[in-house]
Amino acid sequence: KNFQFIAKAMLKSNASIMVDTVEELKNTLIELFQSKEKRQFYSKNTASFINNNNYALNKSIEIINKISQNM
Fold this sequence. Notes:
The chain has 3 helices and no strands.
């Protein structure tokens, strides 16, 4: 429940793949092992997602620090 927002954002950014069954997981892993292009696609998108959200996290920490200094 806590990670639903992140999971949805990652899926929307093509930074992850969601599977519902063990069979689907197996087939997805096989696809990724067999396709260098797919691996590169998801790797690139995941790195971009992390970089973009790392910036947002750092900005949030900066704002929290400023607020806490004024208390």
